[in-house]
Each structure stands twice: as C-alpha cells, then as structure tokens.
Fold:
Amino acid sequence: MSRHLQTEVIEGHLARLRQGETAAINQLLEHAGERLMHLTRKMLAGFESVHRYEQTDDVLQNALMRLARALRECAPEDSRHFFRLAALQIRRELVDLARRYSGKGMRSLEGGANEEPSEPEADLTPSEHTNDPRRVAEWTEFHRLVQELPEREREVVDLLLYNGLSQQEAAEVMQVDVRSIKRYWQRARLSLFEKLQGSATSPVTLLMH
Structure:
C-alpha cells in the first residue's frame, strides 16, 4: 500500500473513532508501530548493555500504550493531528528511555500532569551500563530540543522523522509546497546540529540524514 493510500486509510480510521468505534484505535496503532520500531532500533544501536534491560519490543509497547490512552481521551480531527499526536507520544517514550539510563532523573519532556516521571534504576549508572554515557545524554537532549523547535519546523520533524513520511507526503499533510518542507527540514537539522555540536555519532547525524 502506498503512503498516500495509508494516509487515506488513517483518515478513515479517525472518522470511525470520532463516531465512537474504539476498535479503530488498534488500526491506528499499527500505522504508528512500524516507524517507532525502526526509530527505537536506531536509538538503541551501540548500547548493548541497555538491551539487557530494555528490549525494543518493550519500548514499542510502552509508546503505543501512551498513544492508545491519548486516542481514547480525544480523537484527532484529521491525519495531520494524528501524526503530531503520535510523534509526541513517541518522543515522550524515547526521552523517558534515555533519561532512565542517563541517571539524571530529568523532568518529563512536556511536564504534563498526567505524565508520571520514570524513576532511574537504582543500580544503573552511565559508566557501568552504557557504552558511551555522553551519547545517552545526547539522545535525551535531542528529543527535548525537537520539542523546542518553531512550530512549523517541529511539525516537519514530526512527519519526516517520527512518522516516516516522505517530503511530498509531508507537504500534502501540511498543505504547503515541497520547497517549504525542504526549507523547514534544513532549518531544523541545522538548529539541532548546532545545539548538539553534532558529530558522526550524534542523534542528528544518525537519524536525520
């Protein structure tokens, strides 16, 4: 199925959800799950010790549970809002994961009243359980900085990175031309790269190529 058709299918599932068909949530979770799996595998690459404590499937399940709760609370009005909601839940789970293994106990990304902060594992320290604790901190900072981008740039990152849309698909969702998407994407990459002082192993380099 093409991505364009997938977007149409998402719109159909959202219409059913707004009509009270909660079974549509399962279909929406399937669309978010594949991209999250891909992102999580990239994020955990190089952290062999972390894999012993947090498997990719567990991260996927936790993120999808967040998304399912959000969908039950309020059905997005269209695919654009669904993609933004999915990206937010993915970001929350990934930043929680990075925070757990950084040992810093950072505040939840959104600071929402309904988001309970994850407790750092008492017996885990960056030096003992990661190959490079600096990279764990970079992952945490990366997802936080994405949330601080200007709205248009953040939405493009949400669509291209977290939801895996093409630039053409993102342009259709946001109702702008592809040149605008390219411009927002370039600005976002440059901003994140500069703030993280990007290197060959930085999140910007690994994820936003």
About this structure: The mean pLDDT is 76. The two ends are 25 Å apart (CA to CA). Residues 79-102 form the longest helix (24 residues).
